[in-house]
Please model this.
Amino acid sequence: MKYSEKIRKKLKEKNISVLDKVKIKKENKTYRGILMPNTEMSSPKCITIKLKNGYNIGLEDLGDLKIQKLKKEEKKENKLKIKQDKSKPKISVISTGGTISSKIEYETGAVEPALKAEEIIAHTPEITDYAYIRNYEQISQLTSEDISPSTWLELAKTVKKELNNGSRGVVITHGTDTMHYTAAALSFMLTDLTKPVVLTGAQRSIDRGSTDAPMNLLCASIVAAESDIGEVGIVMHGTMNDDYCYFIRGTKAKKMHTSRRDTFRPINDKPIAKIKPNGQIKKIQNHSKFQDKKTDTEIGFEEKVAILKAYPGSEPDALSYYEDKDYKGYIIEGTGLGHVPTQAKKTWIPKIKEITDKGKPVIGTSQCTYGRVNPNVYKNLRKFYHEAGAIPAGDMTVETAYVKLGWLLATEKNEKKIMEKMKENLKGEITERSLPETYLY
Ligand code: GLU
Model:
């Protein structure tokens, strides 16, 4: 719906268009904000502006409303606009996109990545109480459903460069949807890592009053600058309030809720630490320790790895589809302890055997999320793991198993070793014992 004829005339006279910054005077009050398009929900007689705090207000024009266009803000220089203390520990910030880089696109009301790395940092000047940002880089501007393994490779290279060039930690801002895949990928690709590499993001964009971005970014920077952790992990809200964040190991984290701020939880694991925005870091469990050593990488990813889900009624034909495309490995999200169908026409067993006989890895995980795959308890499990030659993924998440297999297929040429390493714990992805307190942590 358009603004009323009268309002449109007024705007035209003053050469004001939608999205211009305006000052409005009404009943002795002055309002400043961005002129918004009129929507179906608002009266055509009301002028809607977005205030600096992110809220929209509608001001009815009874002929008394005065509107004026404000001058455009100077274009920001490509330089950090915050004062920094060079004596603080040096960190780097790398941005990739996601909600933490996003703002509302006023025409549609949709949120999309638009902020540069330095703009994200500028929203959280408190970082400078703990860290000196030695360098910041933007390697993509993508929401994370569009991030592919090629971004993981670039990130691993950039992190290595930053850590070997003077930063004692790195913060990576990222969309939350696939942040745990990236965290797992970096965990495996950064083979010699003794410094903190911290992924963080947001569930609400920075231009909303309810944003979680600044606290997540601050806590992530505290870990990068001050912690004695030498691992890859995710730092996001630990609760729905702004009280603390968790640092969760990169191979054990999972996004568990579509919209809650405390969406990331450790799976079959405890968080490594709790971080308060006042700088306090409280350890919850053991971790690799910080050392000022050179970082090294083994970079590569085989993208022809498929994740397939077994469910009532599922057909093994799905495997044939990928085999025809010459896929190199499979992650099967089985039921319960890690089952696939074994009866009559629906059985997956012969097809799996055919694949493993070619020397290709087929990995069994569980759709239960929590717990461990067991290859022995039931006769049907024995068919899948012993007869058909699938490899049990222990208590790895499906996402981590996928990333680990894709990485091993690209970096380890010996087939037998790939199978062995899938069962070994390389980067905290498989725990030795299932601790009861890790369930629904
Ligand atoms: N789907 C987007 C992404 O993962 C937005 C979600 C977010 O960043 O929290 O990047």
User: Anything to note?
Assistant: Residues 25 and 66 are 5 Å apart (CA to CA). Residues 98-99, 143-145, 175-177, 201-203 surround glutamic acid (CB under 6 Å). The two ends are 48 Å apart (CA to CA).
